[in-house]
Structures are given as structure tokens and as C-alpha cells.
Amino acid sequence: MKSLRTTALKEAQTRVSPEVKAPSPKISEFFGSNVFDTKKMKDFLSKDVYEKLIAAIDRGELINQDEANHIASAMKQWSMSKGATHYTHWFQPLTGSTAEKHDSFFEPSKDGPIEKFAGSALVQQEPDASSFPNGGIRNTFEARGYTAWDPSSPAFIMESKAGKTLCIPTVFVAYTGEALDYKAPLLKALNALDKAAVEVCQFFDKGITKVTASLGIEQEYFLVDLALYNARPDLALTGRTLFGHMSAKGQQLDDHYFGSIPERVYSYMVDFENEALKLGIPLKTRHNEVAPLQFECAPIFEEINLAIDHNQLLMDVMEKVARRHHFKVLLHEKPYAGINGSGKHNNWSLITDTGKNLLAPGKTPKNNLMFLAFFVNTIKAVHEHADLLRASIASVSNDHRLGANEAPPAIISIFLGQQLNEVLDEIEHSRISKKIKEDNALWLGIPKIPQILLDNTDRNRTSPFAFTGNKFELRAVGSSANSSAPMTVLNTIMADQLVKFKIEVDKLIKKGEKKDIALLTIIKKYIKESKDIRFEGNGYSQDWENEALSRGLANVKTTPVALDAYISDKTTELFEKNNVFTKRELHARHEILLEDYYKKLQIEARVMGEVANTMVIPACIEYQNALLENVKGLKDAGLSKESLETPLAIINKLSLHLGIVKNSIDEMLEERKRTNAIEDSREKAIAYDQNVKSHFDAIRYHADKLEQIVDDSVWPLPKFRELLFLK
Ligand code: ADP
Ligand code: MG
């Protein structure tokens, strides 16, 4: 089969990009054309029902049966006019990808077949979805799961060559009401946040009645030629290369970052962007990333629930469109060892219904007090629940990134930039409240915050959670993750923190303190209490690890241990109090995450064994045989002993590495058998990490050495230089 690599290389070198045509030269003319957006709602709905739907979207008001029928019928009409024949509830189960189950509009009736979409089918469905992960929430005898319409995310049409389907974004819950997906808890967290943030806003502005979180997700990814990908069983089955010596040229010249985009890639980007834009995903930015064949795209930020739906949809579109271009898009956090990994930066802020970004410093001192309140509460929330935030980004694939030398470390810290650090220090050390009380001049007590922050451009790229001018950026999220997990945590801890803040401020006011002084007093207290989480230096350095340790910050490097934070008493109380997760749901999620962890390692271990045994070792033996032939020939020709030295030395070296590879594979297999017998998921996951995964490095190291020795023409796996530099 070594010819698979050869044919793949030939194929990859002769690719012709398909022609890409934008639906119109102006994006504004086709943006959202596949979305049942407010404009189309207006066209297809009666005025009454339109207003009801808008109220449901904006304020979560309920829609009755008649209205649902009317809306369903309008959606059907619109989508059929665009060529849709089927509809589906579109949801995000805990598998990590999105799920659909298509039904056709077509229905037989006594007057002959008709096309039908009833309100009941829009509002709720019961997919036979018993094999989605549920962590024990559903027994087989009560396996029912329901999908329920989320009107706040608009319906859209998914297009493919074969046909078009109307997709209805939904939550996915068990018969008992427990969440089985990512969206349901996120919506609950956003609800808690809205309430808590509005309460705090009332200290400053009585006109604010709603606060939403905004999210802009930067998505990093790698591209690889489809034929080369298919010639690598490790990539195809695990999403990453388990073998492969580093290419002589990697990213050391920094010549890829922001460089000109290769033509073939450019054509792919434009193609998937067009599809995404039609789906209302406001993609704005595209560029090369640091590693060869690594890229990034980013949309304009949106309301968070929509932003996450859009990101999930985008990943799907990127994968589908890649096929047309004979690419495979790699969303794995670390497809190539020794080369930068991929993340998904989550840019987050809070925006009021009056249009104010609560994390943007204001023009007046009064606005700045409001800014400081939300800013400092965010820091305090992250300080309180850093372990939970760490847990929310933990996965087997993200473990390769966190703590590795080119990604945010597994230590959660916050970067603020010099100016804001100085502001916080000043508040902390000043005797503001005393001074203010005397002078009755509060506003002089608040340090000036420049509206345009210098650090805005001077980013610290090594921080997992950075303030970037008017938003916080959580950079530790993995490229393949559903952002809902960390965003559910972030918004819940923020909601919880704001509730506590309000209580503390109110207490002081009740005691007779002036409101502004009460606010500032608590802000000052929080600055002091959360100081340890602030770090401005190089997050990748060993110094920081040491310092973080002395500060008492957690540095949990592996997923199974990081996940403990999901079921601690503190977390359970937090989520129950804010009505986001019940204890049972948390335990279910914990179980699912652990299972996901060890199952993926199990697959990696199996693939590693198979590729080593059936591809790497046979190739080495083939080359060894050729060398033996050579030695024999040299001997027969009567050549001196010295002339045999080189081939014999190579044969020796091959044997040495081969022996280690084979032994390690066998040991790993034994270890896997032992580990598989462990019942408890946490124990099993830890054992998979410590006893099975621990063999990966040795196997790989020696296999990669072999790659460097064996005749290139018999090596079966496409090499890094081919995967990364063929454009
Ligand atoms: P970079 O971080 O690569 O320099 P930007 O800061 O311009 O890029 O933007 C990154 C993402 O942050 C984009 O998706 C952008 O829309 C988003 N963003 C900008 N402002 C906000 C905000 N207030 N809230 C949430 N996301 C935002
Ligand atoms: Mg960014």
C-alpha cells in the first residue's frame, strides 16, 4: 500500500480548484438570504403574529398554538419558495457536533398528498435520539428526549446539491426536563446574567431593562489535501497525526503568518464564506495563522446564543465546502506535534438594551464607575471560579494545547494591560472613601481611565483571559469545542458575582453610606481580593508556573482531574442557585466528559498500534531486507569488511528502534486491557492518561526516528513536509 502515499501526492499536486461564484458582487445583497430573519418574518406573517414572535425573541414571551401554526405555515411557505422539501430540528447534543433528523413536508391526505408543517412540529419534536450521550440521565425504559424550538435563533435553510432543508434551532432535553445539550444551560445562564446585570445597572441608569452578552468567535483551523489526509489513518480517525517527524522547515521563519493566502486556499475561503454569509453568519476577517497551512476566520460579534449557533453552523459549512475543494479542514486543537495548535478565541462583553457596552470605559467619571463595577466583577468572578473555567475548556484534544509551549497555559490568569492595572492599583491603594467622605468629591477619587487604551493594540498573546479594550477574550477555548460550555460557565459566574455585589453594596447603602461610595468601597474590596489572578508577564514561562504556584493558583494539566471542578460542592451550589444545572445534570455532564476523554484515548491507542504494526514496521522491514540484500551482494563481490559497515550500521539502527516500537506497542496493549477493566470513569480516565497515553511518546519518538532512516520511497505515510507545505 505504499503506493497510497504516492498516488495521494500525485493527486494533491494536480488539483484544480472549482470555480467559485459569489451570488452577487455585493455581500449585502445576499447576506442572510437563507435565513428566516425579521425582514422575512414581516413579509410572511400577519402583523399580530409578527409582533408576538418579536416579543418571544426579545423577551422570551410565550407563543400559543394558533400563533405557532401561523408561524410554521409561514416558514414552510418561505422555505418551499426557496426549494426546501424537508424540515428538521437542529440541535447540539453533547457529542460536540450538531444533529439533525429530517422530515419531509409531504403528507398524504384524503384529498391527495399535500405539503404540511404544523405548529406542533415547529414547537416540539421527539427524535428517537436515545443513543446521544446522556450520562445516565435517561434509562433505556425512559429514553425519550425532546427538542424544543428556540425562537431567539432564526430558522435557516441548509443547502446541498441534493436538496434543501429548513432547520429550526432547538434545545434538547430529557423527558424529565434535564438538559441533554449545550444550548439549554446556556440560555438559562444568560437569563440569570440578564437579571443580575440589570439589577446592578439600576445603580447607574434606571432606563436599562435588559443586558445581553455578546460574543465574537475567532476560529482557527488547518487545511490539508483530502488525498493526503485519507492516506493518514491517524488523521482520518483521530483528527491528529500520531506519527510524523517534524519537517525540516516548520514555522521557524514566521513566513506564513499574515502572508499572502495561497490561491487554492483563497478559493476555498471565498466559497465557504459565501455559504456562511447566506446563512447570516457575519464573517468579516480571514488570514493566515502562525503555522503553515493554518488559517483563521472571524465574524462580527453577535448576541451570544446566536454567535454560538453560528459558530457551530460555520464549522459544519467549512467541512462540507472543503470537500468540493479536495481539502479536509482540521478543527482539532493539535493536528501536528511541534507546530502551533488551534484555538477559538471567545471575545465577550455585556451590552445593554440602551446600546451601552458595559465593558467599555466611559467618557465621564460616572460612566467609569459603571465600567469599573462590571470590569472588576468579571475579574472577581474569574478569580473565584478559575477552576471551573479551566474545567469548561478541558478536553482530550485541548490538553495538547494548554500548558504546551505555544498556547495559553493551564493556569487561569487575567491580563489587563498596563493602564488598567495602574488604575486598579491606584484605587486599591488610595484611601478613596475616606477622602471622598471628607471632600464629598467622589469623582476626583476615581482615577482617569483613558477611553482609548494603549494596550488595546499591545496585546499579551500568552494570557488565557485578556482584556482587549472593550471586551474580555477567553483564548483557552479549543478550536473544535462548542463555546457554550465555557460561555455557560462565564455567564453564570458573572451572574452569581453580580448578585453578590448588589447585596454587598445594598448593605452599605442601608447602613447610610452614599450609593457611589458604597459602590466604590466594594469595588475596592474586590480589587484586593482578586489580585492574585492578575498577571501581565509571559504566561508561557517557567517563572510564571512557579509564581502561580506560590500565589496558590491552580495549574491542572490534564482533563480528568480538571473536570473535578464540575461536581464540587461549590460548583453545585453555584449552578443550582442560578438555576442553570441541577446536581444530577452536573454529574451527568461530568460522566460524559470523562467518557469522551478515555474513549478518544482508547481510539488513539488502537490507531497507533495498528499503524505501527501494519504500516511503519513492515516498511522498515522492507528497507532492512533491501539492506541485507545489499550486504550480501557486497560480500559476494568480495568487498572488504569496512565496506559492509555502513549498511550494517543502518540495519542495526533499524533493529534498535523497531524493537522499542514493537515492545512499547505490546506493553501499551497490555496496559489498555488492564485499564479497560476499570469501572469508575474518573479512575479509568486517569489511568488512560497515566498508563496508556504515557506510551505514545516513546512509540512516536522511535517511529519518527525510523521515518528519518528508511528509504523515502517505501515510507507509507505522507510526511509533515507534504501535509504542511503542499499548496
Ligand atoms: P483580534 O483579537 O484578532 O485583534 P478583534 O479584536 O478586532 O480581533 O476582534 C476579534 C473578535 O472580537 C471579532 O469577532 C469582533 O467582532 C469581536 N468583538 C469586537 N468587539 C466586541 C465586543 N464588544 N464584544 C464581543 N466581541 C467583540
Ligand atoms: Mg483576538
TrEMBL record:
GO terms for molecular function: glutamine synthetase activity. Residues 1-20 are annotated as: Disordered. Residues 85-177 form the GS beta-grasp domain. Gene3D superfamilies: 1.20.120.1560, Glutamine synthetase/guanido kinase, catalytic domain. Transmembrane segments: none annotated. It comes from the Bacteria. One of its GO terms (biological process) is glutamine biosynthetic process. Residues 182-616 form the GS catalytic domain. InterPro entries: Gln-synt_C (IPR040577), Gln_synt_N (IPR008147), Gln_synth/guanido_kin_cat_dom (IPR014746), Gln_synth_cat_dom (IPR008146), Gln_synth_gly_rich_site (IPR027303), GS_Type-3 (IPR052725), GSIII_N (IPR022147). PROSITE patterns: GLNA_ATP (PS00181), GS_BETA_GRASP (PS51986), GS_CATALYTIC (PS51987). Belongs to the glutamine synthetase family. This is Glutamine synthetase. It comes from Pedobacter antarcticus 4BY. The lineage of its organism: Bacteria, Pseudomonadati, Bacteroidota, Sphingobacteriia, Sphingobacteriales.
